[in-house]
Design brief:
- The protein is an alpha/beta fold and 210 residues long.
- The protein is 16% helix and 30% strand.
- Strands 7-10-13-16-19-22-24-25 form an eight-stranded mixed β-sheet, with helices on one face. A six-stranded parallel β-sheet has the order 8-11-14-17-20-23, with no helix packed on it.
């Protein structure tokens, strides 16, 4: 049985998600996109029509309709997820078929995992996370909900990445280290120490700068 699906977000990330859905042969039929940017409305984007705002999605589609949040910004993704779940909409997990996922790993609903990524043994990825291309998550690591791993990120084994945390492209988190909720690690940085909640670390080795 095929279910209808709407994509929330009409930017570049939406195109990546749509490609992954098509490649995965998921039992969903994409019906269109919704985005709060009026410049996208009534425009063909990524092969589908942008039908209006998020509020229009909430009010014009049936209860329990499926959506996928193709929103790159972690805070915006969290805020929209709260709204849509409160409206009794449903989400799914999108994992590109070119991903290697250990049978013992777990990936939460609403999460997107991009091509050529690897999720190791016993690793856990929370809900509405974003794991971008060529990222790797080591064994026994925990990636919390609404976090984001940019292209080429390396999370080593036994790491903990807090809710809403952000790792820039090609950043590395050393084995057993943690990032607090809503912390950030700049691109091409190497974190040899824990990063506190809400702080930004950068450099090789990374130091907290904000």
């Amino acid at each position: 049985m095929t279910e209808d699906l709407w994509i929330i977000g009409a930017g570049g990330h939406a195109g990546e998600v749509i490609d992954a859905i098509h490649a995965s042969n998921l039992p969903f039929l994409i019906r269109g996109l919704y985005d709060d940017n009026p410049a996208f409305h009534n425009q063909p984007i990524h092969g589908y029509q942008c039908l209006g705002s998020v509020d229009q999605f909430i009010h014009s589609t049936p209860k329990h309709s499926f959506f996928f949040l193709a929103i790159g910004n972690n805070t915006a993704r969290q805020n929209l997820a709260i709204r849509l779940i409160a409206a009794e909409k449903k989400t799914l997990t999108v994992i590109h078929p070119a991903v290697i996922v250990s049978p013992s790993a777990r990936v939460g609903s609403g999460t997107y995992v991009a091509p050529c990524s690897t999720i190791g043994s016993r690793a856990v990825v929370g809900e509405f996370a974003l794991v971008n291309v060529h990222a790797s998550i080591g064994h026994d690591s925990e990636i919390a909900s609404f976090s984001q791993l940019c292209p080429g990120v390396r999370v080593s084994g036994y790491c903990k990445v807090g809710q809403g945390a952000f790792l820039g492209s090609n950043a590395v988190l050393a084995p057993g280290k943690s990032m607090g909720p809503w912390s950030r690690l700049s691109g091409c940085s190497l974190a040899l120490n824990d990063i506190p909640e809400g702080r930004l670390a950068s450099g090789i080795p990374a130091t907290v700068i904000v």
